[in-house]
Amino acid sequence: MKDVIWEKVLVAPETSIIEAMRLMDETALQIIIVVSGERQLLGTVTDGDIRRAILKGTELKERIDTVMNRRPTTFKADESRQDMLTAMRLLGFSRVPIVDDRNRVVGLQILDTLLRPTSKDNPVILMAGGLGSRLSALTQNCPKPLLPIGNQPVLQTILENFISYGFHKFYISVNYKAEMIIDYFGNGSRWDVSIEYIHEDKRMGTAGALSRLQERPQQPFFVMNGDILTKINFLQLLDFHTEHKAAATMCAYKYELQIPYGVLKVDRYRLQEITEKPTQSFFVNAGIYVLEPDTLDHIPADTFFDMPSLFEKIIASGQESAVFPIREYWLDIGKMSDFELAQSEYAKVFGEEK
Question: Residue 82: its pLDDT value, please?
Fold first, then answer.
């Protein structure tokens, strides 16, 4: 527990949310500690707190103390390590500030290495069976997941991102030019992971192929479209899903659309207001999901079924569904302009890791 690392997440209450997000990403500690000038603890902010604020429409320029937990759990500096670990296991906390008798922050207890094994057994299902018709000029002889972005296929980047977080059990759903995908990825031994294949012999939608799983997962599992570039933290997503006791969690990306005209507010025939070129924002389906095993009961066998239809069934059944807002890089490579954008941005976003 080096001071030079945890001290970076000590911020003043007037720090902006966006600056706190930058620090959280830079340190990878998943917590911000809000303190006074003398390091007295005022509150804490987790990744979940920030994402909930985004969902509520909170502006990222707002002060961090508007979203902080003002009564966080703390440990005293003289508490034994075993007592701290026992309490964190019972409470389910992975980050807890350590304070002295004057409530000044003197450390940060981190449980990640104790609670999380280096290997994560949650299955990951990558959907790679689509035709890629909007990129037909490129996909006539190559399935879209094998199209090179940067120095490797987009599906390989997705696979390696999951591997970097400890996931090792993969399924790839294939249809169009399936043999090319299977030849490239094989059984996963090249990456020291396991890869099995779900074979679609017809269009089955983004959820229908799940009915062909030979073995039902025993843990929450990921489903992700095979044509998405993202820097999302998959462990944070899994934590968010578990924290909210959700049957299903859908990732959402904030999409902004600028109206290129002055928008009029009219009452009958009276002009009340003119707003020049306003920007509207929407949360859109990002094509990344975490599902509980029993959600598979909602999927009809061997037929076309899309993921939005699955969520509609889950909601109708009264089960909890959650939305995880993506604040990291995300790009759906659905059309030629997106493919070209991915090529230009890949080195900047992923270059340091490859």
Answer: 74
Q: Is the dihedral of CA 12, 109, 44, 322 positive or negative?
A: positive
Residues 49-70 have pLDDT tens digits of 999 999 999 999 999 999 999 9
Residue 179 resides in a domain: yes
What's phi and psi for 164, nearest 5 deg? -65, -20
Tallying the residues shown for the chain, one arrives at: 354
Q: How much is the pTM?
A: 0.73
Closest alpha carbon to 55 in 234, 245, 251: 251
Number of domains in the chain: 2
- H-run or E-run covering 81: helix 81-91
Category of 302 on φ-ψ map: left (φ > 0), alpha (ψ -120 to 50) or beta: left
Inside any domain, residue 198:
yes
Task: State the chain's maximal CA–CA distance in angstroms.
Answer: 73
- Reported as a single tens digit per residue, the pLDDT across 257-283 is 888 899 999 988 889 899 998 888 889
The Cα 167–Cα 2 span in angstroms is 27
d(CA 333, CA 219): 29
139 and 253 co-located in one domain: yes
Question: Residue 74: which domain range?
Answer: 3-114
Do 218 and 293 touch, CB atoms closer than 8 A? Answer: yes
Nearest Cα to Cα of residue 234 among 124, 94, 111, 345: 124
